[in-house]
Amino acid sequence: MTGRLAEVALRTNAAQAATSHGVAHSVQVAPITVAALITPKWLTRHLDVPSEATDVILPGYCDSALDDAVDPESPRTTWRMRLAEIAGLAPEKIVCGPNDCRDLDAWLGGKIREVDLTDHSIEIIAEINHAPRLSIDEVVRIAENLRADGADRIDFGCDPSRRCDRVGDYVKALIAAGHRVSIDTFDPHETRAAVDVGASLVLSVNSSNRESAADWGCEVVAIPDTPDDLDSLESTIEFLSRHNVPMRLDPILEPIGFGFGASLLRYVETRRRYPELAMMMGIGNLTELTDVDSAGVNMLLLALCEEFGVGSVLTTQVINWARSSIKECDIARRMVHYSLKEGVPPKRVSDQLISLRDPKLRPYSPEALESLASGIRDNNYRIIAQDGVVHLISAGVHLCGDEPFAMMSELLSMPQSSNVDVSHAFYLGFELAKAKIAAQLGKQYEQDQALQWGHLTVEEERHRIPRQSRHRKD
Hints:
Layout: H1 7-21, H2 40-43, E1 56-58, E2 69-71, E3 74-78, H3 79-87, E4 94-96, H4 104-108, E5 123-128, H5 136-149, E6 153-157, H6 167-176, E7 181-184, H7 188-196, E8 201-205, H8 210-213, E9 219-222, H9 230-242, E10 247-249, H10 260-273, E11 278-282, H11 284-287, H12 294-308, E12 312-315, H13 325-342, H14 366-375, E13 382-386, E14 389-394, E15 397-401, H15 404-412, H16 422-441
Parallel strand pairs: 1-4, 5-6, 5-12, 6-7, 7-8, 8-9, 9-10, 10-11, 11-12
Antiparallel strand pairs: 2-3, 13-14, 14-15
């Protein structure tokens, strides 16, 4: 069942869905313009179910009220039960479909099966750069935010140009706040102060400071003396092994332009040489030093780590385009773990890292769009964005363009614009701006809903114009 405006679109999508799933179907077009305005109570006067029907699919917007009591004094009878009586079917055969008829095929086939992204196998170490330049309270506050985004360990990044005599106080405060802490320094004095109060990992150790590592009593990250010198890494590994120092290996990821590809091969070689030892990858050299949004880069690097058996990553989020790297890594590590565990590509697993564009577009066909434009008889404004074009539709109005200012100027020059007051003009301007962004980027635009930016999406409250204006659908 649907309303008149969605008839053409529903008939098209229902026919395609019926063919895909091998079912017979019929469409009832209710005597109402907009399907979203259909209520279960209203349906008790208008539902007309063919005798051969086995199931009734109502518009998705009915869902919130379908199991409400018909009479508050008699809560055992719901609108679903009342509609089932009218249809001559069991109550469970009265169901609500998707809000948008273009999603009908996916809805009939069941939504994408539940994907459990609880598990992961990669530790995220979040570095606070130049931490001694901040107050202890600032460091703890930043650490709390990093943990909320998915960090498992906080790396206290020391200042190479100046020794921090209070490093112990910082680390003690972080541990008191419940954090696992690593210390990032080559200064033995800073390292000793940190491990004495509970730091459990030292970044990093090579031939310059490995002698001291034997006395720290904690795990260290072993690195080569220079990134391309795996022999120096081997020497440090042998020394640490002789002194029973627990370690993880980091052959050093190089930035693009400085041997990025070769450094990846060194991870492969290190894993081949030392299959039993833990490894770490510092991925900030790529995300922070590449002019590109960080989500895709983090996803690929976490995938490499999962495949190479690199059990931890060190990253930071200083540069603005990488400001959400910790959260991105948390999402990515779950996706790649699921992908390798299930033996499937990480597609249709999660849309949280799809920000610039959307996973799927649901454009209207030209026929459905034309039917919608010609079928509207009220003064409510509908906004549609697809194929790089914004459509503004109302009774006797169908404006198309990609520039909201020009569209509003044209609208206000038309006789039909007499119903556009100040508040409604603001609403239209706000929605047209969103529609322009969607059209420009190739995103799905839904009027009165937030654009989807993956894990960065901020849902919007439904915008309502005072009812006396009656200039838009409620």
